[in-house]
UniProtKB/TrEMBL annotation:
SUPFAM superfamilies: Uracil-DNA glycosylase-like. GO terms for molecular function: DNA binding; oxidized pyrimidine nucleobase lesion DNA N-glycosylase activity; single-strand selective uracil DNA N-glycosylase activity. PANTHER family: SINGLE-STRAND SELECTIVE MONOFUNCTIONAL URACIL DNA GLYCOSYLASE. Residues 13-28 have a biased composition (Acidic residues). Keywords: DNA damage, DNA repair, DNA-binding, Hydrolase. GO terms for biological process: base-excision repair. It comes from Galbula dea. Transmembrane segments: none annotated. The keyword DNA-binding applies. This is SMUG1 glycosylase.
Length: 141
């Protein structure tokens, strides 16, 4: 099991290249297709006009927590399902910390056994830092 892994942006070019290689190798499987679709939709969302006041910070966990998100998708989205429930809990102590939908750090790390590097997001809110799997707070939503 991996300990708390929060990294500064831009420090892991080699690791990111390795991740991209793994994604390319598995493009044809269900999880790979799902991840590709997520990347495409994420790019469309980023192209939208920025929010105005009172919104001051927007986190993009599929950017800075892509590695654990991929681990989650490859672990739990590997066969067809009758129902697919998508979403991100709105609070700052779930997916914003781990990249796993509806996943507070303890449950993602201990129960789901998901791991991976979580980088610091750009434009982090000082009162809502991303601590990754070391986040001590629970998500109440």
């Amino acid at each position: 099991m991996e300990e708390r892994t929060v990294m500064e942006p831009g420090l892991v070019a080699e690791e990111e290249e390795e991740e991209e290689k793994e994604e390319e190798e598995a493009e044809g499987d269900l999880a790979g297709q799902f991840l590709q679709l997520e990347k495409e939709l994420s790019a469309l969302l980023k192209a939208l006009e920025p929010f105005g006041e009172p919104v001051s910070h927007v986190y993009h966990p599929l950017d800075y927590a892509w590695e654990p998100h991929c681990h989650f998708v490859r672990s739990y989205c590997c066969s067809p399902k009758r129902v697919l429930f998508l979403g991100m809990n709105p609070g700052p102590f779930g997916m914003a910390q781990t990249g796993v939908p509806f996943g507070e750090a303890w449950h993602v790390r201990e129960w789901l056994q998901i791991h991976g590097k979580v980088h610091k997001p750009s434009g982090e809110h000082p009162k809502r830092p991303v601590l990754g799997f070391g986040c001590p707070r629970s998500e109440v939503s």
